[in-house]
Amino acid sequence: MTIRRMDNVLIVVDDLDAVIAFFVELGMELEAKAPIEGRWVERVIGIDDVREDVAMLRAPDGHGRIELAKFHKPKAISVVPKDAPANTLGIRRIMFAVDDIEDVIARLRTHGAELVGELAQYEDSFRLCYVRGPEGIVVGLAEQLG
């Protein structure tokens, strides 16, 4: 049997409301926000005595989701370096296709986002950039040309 779809990507955050606002500004829709605790979640994630708030955001096309989690107990653990470069092992960014990359960058800047490098063009196909948002979250933006 093969997989049916990629359901969601989890991002653990400290300031849940700021990160929700960032992704909503990007164009995602907040589906739900709720506290999570109990033995079932402890068994799934392998951590005892868990208490967290979770928010689920959906992409405009209805297919992709991002799950945000704010751990109250136990506290989240930071990785070093905090603003890891693109060649660091592990998941580094989430890429989004956008219609107007400059507009998206401008709107995300109102939420503290900064370009990681530069807005660049790949041949006659795409304009691309990485943006670092709240808590060091990196999103890639791609505007298809033509």
Describe this structure in words.
With 146 residues, this protein is of the alpha+beta class. The chain has 3 helices and 9 strands, in the order E-H-E-H-E-E-E-H-E-E-E-E. The strands form 2 sheets. Strands 5, 6, 7, 8 and 9 form a 5-stranded mixed sheet that branches. A 4-stranded mixed sheet has the order 1-4-3-2, sandwiched between helices. The protein starts with 8 loop residues before the first strand and ends with a strand. The model has no long low-confidence stretch (mean pLDDT 93).
Strand content: 35-45%
Total helices: the number is: 3
Low-confidence stretches: none
Kindly name the structural category.
alpha+beta
* Total strand segments: 9
Radius of gyration: 17 Å
Spatial gap, N to C terminus: 38 Å
Question: What is the mean pLDDT?
Answer: 93
Helix content percent band: 10-25%
Largest pleated sheet: 5 strands, mixed
Compressed to H and E, one letter per element, the order equals EHEHEEEHEEEE
* Net shape: globular
